[in-house]
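Inverse folding, one chain.
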């Protein structure tokens, strides 16, 4: 037994932090902004977000018109300014040729690894959006891609093939493979959590794959979904994964996404839960699971219940402590019925007392 094993805390899972006063970190007039993958690099702070024109509407345009962009600030509070489009459209013959979305960025071995979801399709976005069957087909063919850069503002070079494919019956992950969440261990071993489902009537759940290197090849660690659900209407998505060296545990934040009035994991639709695992397969939920809410208090004292608070992403300090939490967010009277566009909201994380 190593000394770290003797001192590791293997008690009940506990996130150990609470959100502080919220602030708007990134807003781009004329654009819907989604995703919020942060990284501190080369003396600055960067966000990798997706965007598409606000004039097109929200709807399923994230599936047909999204592109991944890079934003920069000299402070984790922002404001972040637009730097460039990192992953533009590149032709429908590629799996990610017409659309890129869902960012996750990691640094390892002197390189930056940008994991994302990509889609492709024939025809125009409007032609596809008017056809429910086409929307479902493009949704089902979402796949996780990887782009790698030698420096944070350097060229991100994409792999031409997805990191993981869907499986056939009888497996549960037969449709989209999407929403990447990644943890890279010091030896390069890389764990990838993804979202999928059996078909359009089945719950969205999380799976896990592992590779010897950040670029793959990835193989599944389990044939079953992570965190079994008692009710098929209890869904989850938007995982964020990291490995805590002191706890010797994989740590997971994710969005609670129940349907049809079911209470879900947190008791609040769109809130976030926390779980830990020794092997990235068998996760135990914190009790109670909820660690953040759609109800936030902003720095000016205003208390707001956001229509959506999605895609949680943690920025760690120099010691590896979770220090900041970012989300894709929007205000409105109902989920996805946004009034005034979308934005990235940030909150400092304060140690739980």
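Residues assigned per position:
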């Amino acid at each position: 037994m190593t000394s770290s094993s003797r001192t590791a805390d293997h008690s009940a899972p506990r996130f150990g932090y609470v959100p502080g006063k919220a602030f708007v970190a990134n807003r781009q007039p004329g654009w819907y902004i989604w995703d919020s993958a942060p990284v501190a690099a080369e003396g600055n702070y960067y966000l990798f977000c997706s965007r598409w024109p606000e004039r097109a509407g929200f709807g399923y345009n994230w599936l047909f018109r999204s592109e991944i962009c890079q934003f920069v600030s000299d402070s984790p509070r922002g404001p972040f300014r637009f730097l460039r489009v990192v992953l533009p459209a590149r032709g429908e013959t590629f799996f990610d040729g017409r659309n890129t979305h869902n960012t996750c960025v990691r640094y390892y071995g002197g390189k930056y690894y940008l994991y994302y979801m990509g889609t492709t399709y024939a025809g125009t976005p409007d032609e596809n959006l008017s056809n429910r069957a086409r929307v479902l087909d493009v949704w089902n063919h979402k796949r996780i891609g990887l782009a790698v850069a030698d420096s944070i503002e350097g060229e991100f070079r994409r792999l031409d093939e997805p990191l993981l494919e869907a499986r056939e019956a009888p497996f549960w992950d037969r449709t989209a493979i999407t929403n990447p969440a990644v943890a890279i261990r010091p030896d390069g071993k890389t764990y990838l959590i993804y979202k999928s489902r059996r078909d359009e009537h089945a719950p969205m759940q999380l799976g896990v794959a592992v590779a010897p290197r950040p670029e793959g090849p990835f193989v599944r660690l389990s044939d079953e979904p992570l965190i079994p659900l008692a009710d098929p209407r209890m869904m989850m998505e938007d995982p964020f994964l990291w490995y805590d060296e002191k706890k010797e545990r994989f740590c997971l934040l994710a969005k609670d996404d129940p349907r049809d009035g079911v209470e879900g994991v947190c008791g609040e639709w769109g809130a976030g839960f926390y779980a830990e695992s020794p092997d990235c397969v068998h996760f135990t939920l914190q009790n109670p699971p909820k660690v953040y809410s759609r109800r936030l208090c902003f720095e000016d004292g205003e208390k707001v219940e956001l229509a959506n608070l999605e895609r949680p992403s943690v920025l760690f300090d120099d010691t590896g402590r979770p220090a900041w939490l970012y989300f894709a967010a929007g205000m409105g009277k109902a989920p996805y019925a946004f009034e005034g566009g979308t934005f990235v909201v940030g909150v400092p994380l304060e140690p739980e007392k």
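The two ends are 31 Å apart (CA to CA). Residues 93 and 326 are 33 Å apart (CA to CA).
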